[in-house]
Amino acid sequence: MSAPRIDYQAVFAVTPSPYLVLTPDLVVVEVNEAYLRATGRTREELIGHYLFEVHPDNPADPDADGVRNLDASLQRVLRTKQADTMAVQKYDIPISGRPGVFRAKWWSPMNTPVLGPDGEVRWIIHRVEDMTEFVLTRPPRPKPEAGGEREAMEAELYTRARELQHLNEELREAHDRERRTALTLQEAMLHSPDLAGHREIAVRYMPAARSLNVCGDWYDVVDLSPDTFTVAVGDVVGHGLEAAAVMGMLRSALSAAVRAISEPGRAMDVLSLYARTFEGALATTAAKAVVDTRRQRITYTSAGHPPPVLARPDGTADLLDQATNPPLGLVTDHLPRPQATVSYTPGDTLVLYTDGLIERRDEDIDVGLRRLTDTLGRHTSLSPDQLADTLLSRLGVADGGRDDIALIVVRL
Fold first, then answer.
1. Within 13 Å and on the Cβ side, how many CA atoms surround 312?
2. What are the PPM-type phosphatase domain coordinates in residue numbering (predicted)?
3. I want to staple 317 with a disulfide (CB 3.0 to 4.6 A). Which of 145, 304, 311, 401 is the partner?
4. Alpha helices for 261-328 (secondary structure H)
5. Does residue 143 surpass a pLDDT of 50?
6. What confidence tier does 40 reach under pLDDT thresholds 50, 70, 90?
7. End-to-end distance of the chain based on CA atoms, in angstroms?
C-alpha cells in the first residue's frame, strides 16, 4: 500500500506554533494561522513585505532593540547556514488599524535556514513562541502589594533576558574575533608560493568538525629545480591554536631543510632533531616525496605517517610503504631515516594525506586504506581538483570529520 500524499501547505497552515517563512532578503513569503493570531495581523499585511517594514520597533520605547537583535540573528543564519535560537525578546507589535499604536509583547524566537540543492540558504523559517502571558503574570498571592510584585517580577525577567541576550552577543563576537584571528594565522602558515606554478596539483585542508577552523595538519609544495619539486604533509598531535603554532614551526623547518638537503630521508632527519627541542612537536608524523620529472621517479620517506599512494590510469593503486620510520623526535639513537624510489609514468597520480582522511574509530586502518585505493582506482581519470573533492566525498568527510585532514593530489 502506498503512503498517502501529504498536503504540506495545509499542515503548515494549522501548525500550532507561530511561523513565518522569509526569503534571504527578509521578505515574508508565507505565514501560518497561529502567527496571524499571535500578532493580530492579516496575510495581506505580511505577505510580500520586508519583515522590518511590517514589524518596526516601537517608536515610543527608547530602549526598543527588537529589530537590531532579530536582524543580527537572521544575518547569522544566512552567514553560518545554521539555526539560531534567541533569548526572550521584548518586541512590541503594531495594532492593525491604529497607526502608531503598539501592543507590548515578549517572544522566544528561533530562526532556521532551509538550504537549496546548491547548499545556499533558500528560505528562513522564523518561529516564535508568545511569552507575554508568562512574563506579565504569576501565581496569585493574597497580599495587597501583589501588583507591585508582579511589576517587579516582570522587570526582573525582562532585565535578565536582556542580560542574557547581551552576553550571547558578546560571546558570539569574541568567538568570531578568535576565529578570524585563527584563520589569518592558518592561512599565513599554510601559504605555499610555489603551489601557484603547479596546475597539476590540488590541495585540500579540512579542520575537524566543530573546531575553530585551525588544526595541526599541514601540506607544502616546494620547487627544488626546474625538473624537481617536493610535496609533503604532516600531522601534529592535537587541535586548535597550540597545535597550529607547532605545525607552523615544523612546516617551515622541513621546507628549509629540503631546500638545503634534497634527499627526503636526510631532510626528515633534520626535522626529527628539531622536533626533539620542544615537547609539543613530539610524535608528529610526516610524509615527504621528491618528484623528478626529468627522470620520472619519486623518492619518498615517511615518519610514522600513512603511506602515500601512486595510482595508475589502469585503475591500480600502490601504497608507497617501503620507507617508514617512527614519528618525529621519538628515536634517540641517530640512525639515517630510510627513503625509497619508485618510477612513474606520465598520467599517474600521487596522493599524500593525513590520517583524518582514512581513519575511523570503529574500524581497522586497513579498511580505510582499501577505501582510499579503491576510490582512486575508479576515479583516477578525473582532474586533480575533481579527484580531491571526490576523495573527500566518497570517504565521508566532505563536510569535515572527527580529525583534521590535509590532502595533496598530484597529476604526474
1. 10
2. 200-412
3. 311
4. 264-275
5. no
6. confident
7. 56
Q: Which of 124-133, 195-204, 235-244, 252-261 has the lowest mean pLDDT?
A: 235-244
Coil vs helix vs strand at 234: strand
Give me the percent of the chain exceeding a pLDDT of 70: 82
Q: Is the pLDDT of residue 305 over 50?
A: yes
Return the C-alpha cell found at 319. Answer: 601504497
Band the pLDDT of 373: cuts 50, 70, 90: very high
Lowest mean pLDDT: which of 118-122, 236-240, 245-249, 329-333? 329-333
d(CA 319, CA 368): 13
Closest CA to 285 of 335, 255, 256, 326: 326
DSSP codes joined into one string, 202-266: EEEEEPPTTS-S-EEEEEEEEEEETTEEEEEEEEEEEEHHHHHHHHHHHHHHHHHHHHH--SHHH
Mean pLDDT of the chain: 83
Tell me 50's DSSP state: B
Alpha-carbon span 114 to 127, nearest angstrom: 13
d(CA 55, CA 259): 63
- C-beta of residue 81 within 8 angstroms of C-beta of residue 115: yes
Strand partners, 220: 232
Q: 340 has which bridge partners?
A: 300
Residue 331, Cα to own-chain centre: how many angstroms?
36
Chain centroid to CA 371: 24
Looking at the DSSP bridge assignments, the partners of residue 239 are 215
Can you tell me the distance from the alpha carbon of 392 to that of 53, in angstroms, rounded to the nearest whole number? 44
